[in-house]
Design brief:
single chain; alpha/beta; seven-stranded mixed beta sheet; two-stranded antiparallel ribbon; 9 strands; 34% helix; elongated
């Protein structure tokens, strides 16, 4: 494998053996070139991958980029770089991803936590602050457990039931609950939406599959992330509607329901919520990009 040199450095032979000395900077440049057009941020992906294998943070990598790269790490780095070149998302290659300031284990059984979902957590925590005392919450379609764990870490008075229909996803979620020291506060349960739960719940959170089925074949996300966590049926709202219908008999006297939806559901989703919960205050919240993202259904 060839490792092109950065400027102002002595050129290496055209063919560099794995036992030859190369610097972190040279490796990063090679990785960046290979990832061009295959990852959204090739330089960042290369840096994160290298930091992961060196067990260092990005700041250390930048400060030590002239240090030699340990030769024994190169085979593993090349193997993971090949996966990235083939289009495997970086979080799956690293086996972990950050959400709401916490690190979560992830694999291809769960969706990759995304920053827009932090709006749901932030909105829930703001409501919790206004309602002191013990609270019961449900996180439906928990996946990696990122919503439930983030809520638990910031709201110790709340007990959360995290449910998913996928046993593989629940295994990942349980590991995250243990790793983040919230296993005593969060119960993980296999369930088809709320069918195995009776409530009552003060807070209901859900990031359900919401992509219309016809869109899925045209999206890159379906190549590696689980279709079970993406397919929302013909209109993208099949599971949302079923969840809201189940929730009618499972909510406390005062409650908050938060549902992440596709931006195209900015009108249909709140209208559906108003039909099922006509006495509640339903609003649509926008994410940082200004897109409709979160349906809030509140009853006080």
């Amino acid at each position: 494998m060839n490792y092109p040199c950065a400027k102002n450095q002595t050129a290496l032979p055209v063919s560099v053996k794995k036992t030859d000395l190369i610097t972190i900077r040279q490796w990063l440049e090679t990785a960046r070139q290979r990832l061009n057009g295959r990852q959204d941020e090739p330089a960042l992906s290369a840096r994160l991958l290298t930091a992961h294998h060196l067990n260092k943070d990005r700041a250390w990598i930048i400060a030590h980029n002239h240090d030699p790269l340990p030769a024994d790490l190169i085979p593993a780095l090349e193997a993971d770089l090949d996966r990235l070149v083939r289009g495997v998302p970086l979080p799956y290659v690293l086996g972990a991803w950050e959400f709401y300031g916490l690190s979560f284990q992830v694999n291809e059984s769960v969706l990759i936590p995304r920053p827009e979902t932090e709006l749901l957590v932030e909105t829930a925590l703001n409501w919790v602050k206004q309602h002191p005392g013990p609270l019961r919450a449900a996180d439906v379609g928990t996946g990696s457990g990122c919503i439930a764990a983030a809520l638990a870490r910031h709201a110790p008075q709340m007990h959360i039931t995290a449910v998913d229909i996928s046993l593989q996803a629940l295994r990942v979620a349980k590991q995250n609950f243990i790793q983040l020291n919230v296993a005593g506060q969060v119960s993980a349960l296999q369930s088809d939406l709320l069918s195995s739960l009776s409530g009552p719940f003060d807070l209901l959170c859900a990031n359900l599959p919401y992509i219309p089925s016809a869109k899925l074949p045209h999206l890159d996300v379906t190549t590696h992330e689980p279709s079970l966590a993406l397919d929302g049926g013909p209109d993208g709202l099949v599971l949302v509607q079923e969840l809201l219908l189940q929730a009618r008999s499972r909510m406390a006297d005062r409650f908050l329901i938060l549902l992440e939806v596709e931006a195209d559901h900015g009108q249909a989703a709140p209208e559906l919520a108003c039909q099922i919960f006509p006495q509640a205050n339903t609003t649509m919240l926008r994410d940082l990009a200004g897109l409709p993202r979160l349906v809030s259904i509140k009853f006080e």
